[in-house]
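Please check this today:
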Amino acid sequence: MTAPAERDPQAPIFVVGGGPSGLAAAYRLQEAGRRPVVLEAEDSPGGKIRTRTENGFVVEAGASILPSAYRNVLGIVRDAGLEGELVPGGSVVGFARDGTIHYLDSARLFSDAARTRLLSWRAKLSMAKLMVDNRRIRRHLSYEDLSAAAAFDTETAEEYCRRRRVDRDVYDYVVDATLRGLLGTRGDVVSKVDFFFSFNNVIGTKLYGFRGGMSTYAERLAEKLDVRTGARVREVVDTGHGVEVTWAGADGRDRTEVGAGCVVAVWGTQVPELLPQLDPAAAGFLRRLRYTTSVNLNVALSRPPAGNPAFVIQVPRSVDEGLFGITLEHNKAPGRVPDGKGLLGVYTMSDWAETLMDEDDDTVVTKVMDATERVLPGVSGDVDFVRVNRWYPVIVYSRPGLYRELGEFNALRPRGGRVHLAGDYFSCSNLNTATAAGERAARELLAVLGGLISRSAQPL
């Protein structure tokens, strides 16, 4: 006899993880008339999205910008009625080099790039090689499944530039700078696919913020959903007629609940421990994933840096090995700081962050602000307060061959069962990749459950 959960449209569908991927899955499931229940281990939803307001400063501890290329996120913003919360972000990007900051306005990127003194004319001509190769690869660059670009995933970004004899300045200030600025990783380590993905999907796009900070997105979505915080999931089992989810609440007591299906939207390395039925080869791929580390500072200033219109400054390794970027939050969107004040977000490379993680806050502030001085001299004299944020894991650390392995993993991933996977490990990691994976997992699960409900309507 068929269990009721299999054919009851109102049977719960559990979503494990209340970050952007899990919230996207839950929203799309609810939109389709199902009843998602989000189980989030932390005390609030949002994952790497964390905003707080302190002394009138809107402080982003995690993700801080929303590019227009993030179409999946913007689609949910639109469908959830959150467009009124969006505000245009700054468009000027600064590039530090040789004691100078060169400014490019993304609203007129190509004309500014042609005029900038950041690169010589020889270096600019060398960019043509990137453009030729970009035309070949860009149609394979999917937010939903980057294994589509596996054929190009054969070398690091630096190896690619060396083989193609790309001008060294193009590598330092375009290729490596893009990977540092968006991923906190180095071009001599990660796949060239990550560079082309980032170059196509982020560089030159319009930028947005949320009026009350990035947490507005997660909080407003969560208000529309059944989100249970402090819920630590132990195990998810596909019974053949539904799912059994064992989890512990804030009281520490384990409970097992039955649902129609489940979306598991947690870090890839956590998935094998939750899914005992997972194929061993698929579990092996997930266990081998390596994640980056981040230590970043929120620096409130008594006044903004003079004459600096950028909302973000990219920091190449020639200026500082340890930093990859500085956001000027007061230039990003209105209402971020009290009148006349400034606010910086200072971000460290993953390699340096790993050594800073166990340092005390005072030591971290001293070291990171010393590096900040090399980009913005004199800024330390204007500090009102500093907050230290430590993050691990952050994003998947790619390497040549990772996306070929992702294709093999996807071939093993069951599509016809009641447990589906989401997360930011299906493509180059970012907020939109996580969101796209959540929507795809919801779509696949709905297809399975829809077929079951249709069949259950036939005479037994």
